[in-house]
Each structure stands twice: as C-alpha cells, then as structure tokens.
Design a protein that fits this description.
The protein has 705 residues and is α+β, with helices and mostly antiparallel strands. The chain has 14 helices and 34 strands.
Length: 705
C-alpha cells in the first residue's frame, strides 16, 4: 500500500513574500529615483536656461488664469535657485479689465524676486526678496463696488487689496494710482525708494502725492516706519498728513501690511478754519463753525468709517462723542455728541449766521452777509437743498450749558433726523431760566419751496431769571411766563419761511410780582417812572393778576391778539404788531389806571424801529398834548389847574383772568363784569402796511380823551 502523501504545510505558503516585498520596494525606489531624476533634470534645465524659454507659455497661462493680457517686453527668467523660485522680468505689464479707465493694472521696467514655492499654493504670498524698478500700479473700483482691477476673476466681486509678505525689498521709482467712484476719490501717489530687511524697513519710506475727494483737491505726505519692536512680520508704523482746502488731517497707526487698512485702529487729528468745509468734502452739510480742532480713533470696516473717542473744540465750545459715516448707495451719517459748554456765538450757525461775523461785528452784520437787506436781523441763507437730498443723518447732541450774557440756557437735548431731504429737529429741548422749552422744527425740502413748521413750547419760567439781563430783579420777582409758538410757512431760509408764516404766538403771565431795577415801564405811570429814574429803586414790585401777550400771524405779519395785562393798579393793553417780512415793529402799549391818580401821564408807549434796532418812545403825542393842556391851564388859571391835565380818574376795566390764562384770542376776552373788551388788538393786520392794525383803529387808540 502506498504511503499517504503529506498534507501541504499552510505555514509554508507565503514563503515567497519577502522577495515580493523586495520587488515592490525596488520598483518604488526606482520610480522615486526616476521622479527625482526628472525633477533634477527639470531643475537643471531651468537653472541652466534660466527658464527663458517659458516666457511665452508664462504670458499665455497667466493671462488665461487672470483673464488679462500679460506681456514681458524684455528678458524673462523663471527657475529654482536653488529651492526658492527665481522670477525676473523686464518690461512686465498686466492689463486692466476693459471697463477700467487706464489700460494697465501693473507695469514695471524691471522686477527681480525670490518667492516661497508653497506660498503660491497655500496661505499668503511670500517674497523672500523683491527688487522693483519704476513700477506703476493702477487700482480702480467699479462704481457699485461689484468688482475691482486687482481681483482676477471672470465673476463679479471685488476682494480687498492684500499685499504679499515681503522679507527684503528694494523698490524705486514706484507710483500708485487709486480711483474709487463711489467715494469719488482719486489719489496719485509716488513711493520713495524702499530698503527693508527681515520685515523691518530700516529707513522711513515716504509717500507723497495729490488727488481729489469729490470736488476738493488735496495733497498728502506719508511715511511708513518700522516700529521699535516688530510685533508681526511686515508690521509698519504709518504717519500721514493730508491738506484739503483749509483743513489739515493727521493719521497715525500700525499696519500689519502696506494695504491692511480694514479693521486697523488709526489715530486721527483734524484742524481747520471751518468744520463744515471738512465734512463738505464728503458731501455732508452741517452749519459752519469757527476754528476747530478734533481728534478721534478711526476704524474702517466694510462701508463703515467709525470715529470713536472723538473730542475737541470748535470756536469757544467743546465737543465729544462718536461719529460713523456709512458709504452706501446713499451717504449716511450717525453720531452721538456731548458738549459741556457751548458759546452762544457758536450756536449762531444753527439759524444761518456766520459765527465769525457774529463774534466780530454782531448779528445784523452776519444777517447782511447772508444776503438780507440792510437793517435786517433774520438770516437769508438758503438751505443746501441739493446736498440735503444726497445724504441721510441721525444726530443726538446734549449740551450742558450755553454761555450767554442775557438768557441762561442749559441742559440742551437735540435730536436731528435727515431723511430724503426732510430735516427734523424733533424733539429739541432745553432749560431756560429754570424753565423748560420744547420744540419741533421741520424743514421739508421735498416740497418746493420747502414746507417749514415751528412748534415751540415754553413751560412756566421765572420772569426774574428770564429777564435778569434786561433789568428785572430776581429778588422780589415771583411772576412766571409760559407760552407757545406755532407757525408754518414756505421757504428755503429762516427769513423766507417766517415771511410767509401763518399761526399764533401766545405768552401767558399767571399771578405774581415783578420788580425792575432800571425802569418801571410795565406800569407806565409817569409819576412812578420819574420816581424810579431819580431814586433808582421802587418801594414795591408790580403785582400781576394775569397777563397775555398774543399775536395772530398771517402771511408773515403778526398782529396783537391780544396784549392784555391786569395788575393791581392798571390794565395794560396794546395794539399793532410786527412783520417778519421787513422786520419792522409798530406797537403801542398803554396802561389805564384802576384808581384815581393825581399825577399820571398814562400815555401810550410806542415801540417801533426794526428787529435789529428797536426804538422806545415814551414821550408820545398824547403826553405832549396833555403837557400843552396843562401849560395852558397854568397860564390862564393857576399852577394848580395845570395838574388837572394829568389827573387819571381810574376807570380802567379789570380783566377777567379766565380767558387770559387760557391764552384765548381777543374775541374771547372779557371784563370782570363779563362784557367784551374793545380796548385790545384783535389780530387784524393793517391794510396799508405791516403794523398789524388799521389807521382808524390806531387813531382811536392813540387819540386824546
């Protein structure tokens, strides 16, 4: 019987595995040697030939990738030296897209560089060495910022400009042109020669040039410096000074690279003759100011330019806060400001005055400078209608105190909104003489001419504090005044809007007292007035029961409706009015005694002239007539008879205070016995002038009784 065959040994099956592995490793080694040999051959060929034969393929391939025409007019080199990429070209040019205003994005007489190979594939481009001679860079945005010249893409979209990291550089004769149609900014800059090593610029690099921002030309001088301690590769200290008109702007900061501006805090300082000229450069209209000095931190993020930690002065006033300018489809300005002390002269521009002229020559001269007629006080400066329609704004401004010689004003709170040409100062509030004023003022330039409205409310305010600058003593004065002005008109200036205004003005005096330091004109009793002039003090204050000074305004003419003040001794009434059109005043005020007075002129006092130069005439025709009658009686009779011409029998009808305190018009006024009053102005304007009453009414009122 045959012996059985031995079973195959399973463990011996892979006996040939080590030779197989050796064959695989041998193949891999040979392949690697072939690849290395091929790479070495390519390196050697490039090194020997300097890659000059790649000139035309380089122009074609790079042109296709960038969608631009790329040309090298002179020598060309592209090879590894030994592991860095050596790239050199003479007469290199890269075209701009067809929409650009200049044909070339980049041109240079000569460029020599060493490039980190992996940086072409990953991360930021890095140059170990860059030598650039007579380079010219043209950077331009599309008007809608959907593309720019340095973003190499067939699709829309513009990336921010980013320079490569450069370890060592030698740059001479370089110019940079930058155009942004949305900002309306054009800058043409020349870069001084650059020498740098290890991401540090040994000497300051200067940049000088000129340009135009909107319609304003400017010059700029800047320096790029290495900081004393380099905090990041390529970080440079920027110092820039720009001159635009009468304005000087200084900017300093540390840039992570030459073009890295976005998100970088920059310290800015600005000074000049008029802040409105500075903001006018970017198309923002504000009232003009006196000489200003401001500083702030600027951070640009996308379309927003944020100025924070803002502080400084304009004229004799201070300001602090924050401001943001958004450069979108419409320029948008938003700000929150605070002022500790505002000089009243610096507030003049808010109603159209030039503050420099106000400070030097007064309000009348400032009004004349706006085009107002001689002897006018209201400014005739037109609103910048075209500019107001180009930008929007929101402003909140608080002012602690206003420095004024006559009227104490504090705690001002202004909210301003400009939207599509509609300017609203609403609400506007402030404290005046321990009282409060609230106002809403609107100029709507969307209607032509502008539709303007004024709504001003005065809360109860102490007369002693309010009129302290006009001779009223605070001590002993307990009277208060409250009131409201509601007017609406059409016009592009304060004067025009008021000259066409219609509405009502009313100021109410509740019960109280008033003590005058200089002259007791409110009582208008000549005996008391003469006593006041010589003794310079009164024995007691004027006791007011109630009072109303009201005017009805039609087509810019205000007529008394009514003027009625009831005191313990007299009833003060008035007729006439004033005109916003020609700024004339024509008022007659008289006081009829309630009690018998042996020596009383009680003659109407005439207030005339203009807003700029009002006149007060105490010696009226009625008083002269009484004086003549008294003199005649003294001659033909006795001296005692002469006094009879000045006797007041005291028949004045006391006023019912209800309609007075309600601010009602003249038709609603009554005596204490309920009878209608016929001795007050009824709001009827003059037919032959702007004085507010007809000649017949004035003659009756001023006539001798």
């Amino acid at each position: 019987m045959d012996d059985p065959q031995p079973a195959p040994n399973a463990a011996a099956a892979p006996a040939d595995t080590p030779p197989r592995r050796r064959r695989v490793r041998h193949i891999a080694r040979n392949a690697a040697l072939v690849v290395l040999g091929l790479l070495f051959t390519i390196w050697l060929v490039l090194f020997v030939t300097k890659g000059r034969f790649l000139k035309h393929p380089f122009e074609t391939i790079v042109g296709r990738l960038t969608h631009r025409e790329v040309k090298v007019a002179g020598d060309f080199q592209l090879y590894f030296a030994p592991l860095q990429i050596k790239f050199a070209a003479q007469g290199l040019s890269i075209a701009n897209p067809a929409w650009a205003s200049r044909p070339y994005l980049f041109r240079a007489d000569a460029l020599d560089s060493r490039i980190a190979p992996l940086s072409l594939l990953f991360g930021r481009r890095r140059f170990y060495w860059l030598d650039l001679t007579n380079g010219a860079v043209d950077l331009e945005w599309l008007p809608d910022h959907s593309g720019n010249t340095w973003t190499f893409s067939a699709k829309k979209g513009g990336k921010p400009l980013q320079f490569p990291v450069i370890d060592r550089a030698s740059v001479t004769g370089t110019r940079v042109r930058y155009l942004d149609p949305r900002l309306r900014l054009l800058a043409d800059l020349a870069v001084d020669p650059i020498r740098s090593a290890d991401a540090r610029i040994g000497d300051a690099v200067g940049v000088t040039g000129q340009g135009r921002l909107r319609a304003t030309p400017f010059t700029v001088a800047a320096r790029l410096l290495s900081p004393n301690q380099t905090v990041a590769r390529g970080a440079n200290r920027l110092e820039l000074t720009a001159h635009a008109g009468a304005n000087v702007i200084d900017v300093t900061g540390t840039l992570p690279s030459l073009a890295a501006i976005e998100g970088v805090p920059l310290q800015t300082r600005a000074r000049g003759r008029d802040l409105s000229q500075l903001l006018g450069i970017i198309g923002v209209a504000i009232p003009r100011t006196r000489t200003y000095r401001l500083k702030a931190q600027l951070v640009q993020q996308g379309r927003d330019y944020r100025f924070t930690h803002l502080s400084g002065t304009f004229g004799d006033s201070d300001v602090a806060g924050a401001l943001t300018v958004t450069n979108g489809d419409r320029l948008y300005l938003t700000s929150t400001l605070a002022t500790r002390q505002l000089d009243i002269v610096d507030a003049a521009p808010f109603i159209g005055y030039n503050p420099d002229i106000v400070a030097a020559k007064g309000a009348a001269a400032a009004a004349a400078a706006t085009g107002a007629a001689p002897e006018r006080l209201l400014p005739d400066a037109a609103l910048p209608v075209a500019t107001m329609r180009r930008f929007d704004a929101d402003l909140k401004w608080t002012i602690r105190t206003v420095r004024s010689r006559r009227v104490p004003i504090s705690d001002v709170d202004v909210t301003l909104a400009l939207k599509d040409g509609r300017l609203a100062r609403s609400p506007l509030s402030f404290a005046m003489a321990r009282g409060n004023v609230a106002a809403d003022v609107v100029f709507d330039t969307r209607q032509r001419p502008a539709a303007d409205s004024y709504d001003i409310r005065l809360a109860p305010t102490p007369l002693g504090k309010l009129l302290a600058g006009w001779g009223v003593a605070e001590a002993g004065t307990t009277g208060v005044v409250k009131g409201r002005i509601q007017l609406a008109g059409r016009g592009d200036s304060v004067h025009d809007s008021l000259a066409s205004a219609r509405g009502r003005m009313a100021f109410v005096l509740p019960s109280g007292s008033m003590w005058a330091r200089n002259a007791q004109l409110s009582e208008l009793d000549i005996g008391v007035f003469v006593q006041k002039m010589f003794q310079r003090e009164l024995k007691e204050p004027v006791r007011i029961n109630c009072g109303l000074v009201g005017f009805t305004v039609r087509d810019g003419v205000a007529a008394a409706d009514p003027i009625l003040i009831d005191t313990t001794k007299n009833v003060v009434t008035g007729r006439g009015g004033f005109s916003f059109r020609n700024e004339t005043v024509d008022l007659a005020i008289r006081a009829d005694g309630k009690k018998f007075s042996l020596f009383s002129g009680q003659s109407p006092v005439s207030i005339g002239g203009t807003f700029a130069h009002p006149s007060l005439n105490v010696i009226s025709p009625q008083l002269l007539a009484r004086a003549g009658a008294g003199l005649g009686l003294a001659v033909v009779a006795t001296p005692l008879a002469g006094i009879l011409a000045f006797v007041d029998v005291g028949d004045a009808k006391a006023a019912a205070c209800g309609p007075v305190l309600a601010g009602a018009d003249a038709r609603a006024q009554r005596t204490t016995k309920g009878k209608p009053r016929e001795d007050v102005g009824n709001g009827t304007p003059a037919k032959s002038g702007d004085g507010g009453e007809t000649k017949a009414q004035r003659k009756k009122f001023l006539g001798i009784f």
